[in-house]
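User: For my dataset I need records formatted as: sequence, then structure tokens, nothing else. Please produce one.
Assistant:
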Amino acid sequence: GGAVVITGGALAGTGVNGGVHLRSATGLIFAQQTAATAGADADATLTVAQLINGIYYVAATVDRTLTTPTGAQISTACGIGLAVGDAFDFRMITTGAGGGVELILAAGDGNVTFIGSVRVGPVIAETSPGSALFRFRNTGANTWVGYRIA
């Protein structure tokens, strides 16, 4: 398994680099998504696969801390095609029934930092779980910023 890198064109007088456009006559564009990973009701260190695969949920009964892999581990998993600015999304959901329960995302080392709240929850009721969307962006050699975007 190698990777495919598609790069947009160079500046063309607009001041903006060319992008890669996906189009469909019907507006339907699909992306393959791995199955969500269910975590145990415990503090945990996420594997790189759990982080990069994109969806992680826990039926938490009390506040739980989820620690990311280190910056080097994330970079290694992304492969040799990794460039500064490359990013992936990670969704974290707590589905526990207890009121006030939160998941807390923590950095695996000093090369992983966050912008925005790392607390997900609280769960209001079992039908209203707490969730968050983070975009992890490579900012240099083995360094990542997780942006809370929703």
